[in-house]
Design brief:
The chain is about 30% helix and about 25% strand. It is α/β, with parallel strands linked by helices and about 150 residues long.
Length: about 150
């Protein structure tokens, strides 16, 4: 069954937290697709992942560019999975495709954005009702992820 995680951003913005999580996925050999709510947001995250650190970058591409199927991390505003990812991140309130084809699905939502909070709650309720096992993670004051009961 698909492992479903909810990451509640309370101490940092998505641009600060997402690269570290993606880096861990790549270290584990996982292919990832990151779904945004809009193409504009996809393109902003695309630019950010090339420059978020001075000493490295995350190899990735978008579904609008060539060779999408070769990317270890693919950014999309749609529900496709052109790179055959086993992990899917949903950010900014992006609506998920069916989750059954993934090993792990991660919802990341901004704790200071009421619409994202409400959407995350609705997703939690729907997925819980479908019988999925869910875990909830929240940032502590240091920005580290802490699993909540």
């Amino acid at each position: 069954m698909t492992e479903i995680l909810f990451y509640h951003l309370t101490e940092s913005k998505l641009e600060e937290a997402l690269p570290g999580l993606l880096d861990r996925c790549i270290e584990r050999g996982w292919r990832v697709v990151v779904q945004t709510a809009t193409e504009e947001r996809r393109d902003l995250i695309d630019s950010h992942l090339w420059t978020y650190r001075d000493d490295s970058f995350l190899a990735h591409g978008t579904d609008a560019a060539d060779f999408a199927d070769d990317q270890p991390i693919l950014l999309t505003a749609g529900d496709g999975n052109d790179n055959g990812a086993t992990v899917r991140f949903l950010v900014d309130g992006a609506q998920p495709p069916p989750v059954g084809g993934y090993e792990r699905v991660v919802f990341m939502f901004d704790g200071y954005d009421q619409a994202q909070l409400e959407d995350a709650r609705a997703q939690w309720k729907a997925l819980k009702g479908d019988g999925h096992a869910l875990t909830y993670w929240q940032q502590n004051q240091d920005g580290r992820w802490v699993k909540k009961a």
